[in-house]
């Protein structure tokens, strides 16, 4: 890759380190032209295997497009959606496979979306799991209730999965964004 300072294409690797989770490699590089130093991160390319048999590179924004649609009109912020994208990508990378069936991407969205907004979750699940009747909604809502009660007993109220932190949004930012972007 080009030096980000002078665009020279000759760079030298000074140091390589595997990230703690084993999912990426960081390389410290020096430009042979201007001698500036910079770091590159090498990650496995996730590929999505579509139902048609075609494959395409995993795209976080595209992966959560359906969830984004399901959140329309709901009090969900851009930060929270970015966080969801991060959670989905993390979950998929944790599977340790380079090629992921499209339905697996949908599955990875269900859990964090349920944490985020139950109405959006039901919308998404109704499309993704092809709900056919009100009874399907009722069954899913009954499950949500059971899980909510179980979670309340186990962890006490207000416990939510936090974002991995690689996205800029801290809790404080998300709150600020809520008041700024709704409406
Ligand atoms: Zn340079």
From TrEMBL:
The keyword ATP-binding applies. Binds 1 zinc ion. Its cofactor is Zn(2+). It comes from Nocardioides imazamoxiresistens. NCBIfam families: transcriptional regulator NrdR. Belongs to the NrdR family. Residues 46-136 form the ATP-cone domain. Residues 158-183 are annotated as: Disordered. The keyword Transcription regulation applies. A zinc finger (unnamed) spans 3-34. It holds the Pfam family Zn_ribbon_NrdR. PROSITE patterns: ATP_CONE (PS51161). Keywords: ATP-binding, DNA-binding, Metal-binding, Nucleotide-binding, Repressor, Transcription, Transcription regulation, Zinc, Zinc-finger. Negatively regulates transcription of bacterial ribonucleotide reductase nrd genes and operons by binding to NrdR-boxes. The gene is nrdR. This is Transcriptional repressor NrdR.
């Amino acid at each position: 890759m080009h030096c980000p300072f002078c665009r020279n294409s000759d760079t030298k690797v000074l140091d390589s380190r595997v990230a703690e989770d084993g999912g990426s490699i960081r390389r410290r590089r020096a430009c042979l032209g201007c001698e500036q130093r910079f770091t590159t991160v090498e990650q496995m390319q996730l590929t999505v295997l579509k139902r048609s048999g075609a494959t395409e590179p995993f795209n976080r924004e595209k992966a959560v497009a359906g969830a984004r649609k399901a959140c329309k009109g709901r009090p969900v912020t851009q930060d929270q959606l970015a966080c969801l994208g991060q959670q989905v990508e993390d979950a998929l990378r944790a599977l340790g496979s380079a090629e992921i069936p499209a339905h697996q991407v949908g599955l990875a969205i269900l859990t964090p979306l349920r944490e985020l907004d139950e109405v959006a979750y039901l919308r998404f699940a109704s499309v993704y799991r092809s709900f056919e009747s009100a009874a399907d909604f009722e069954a899913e809502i009954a499950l949500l209730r059971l899980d909510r009660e179980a979670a309340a007993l186990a962890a006490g109220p207000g416990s939510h999965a936090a974002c991995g932190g690689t996205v800029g949004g801290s809790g404080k930012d998300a709150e600020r964004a809520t008041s700024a972007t709704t409406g």
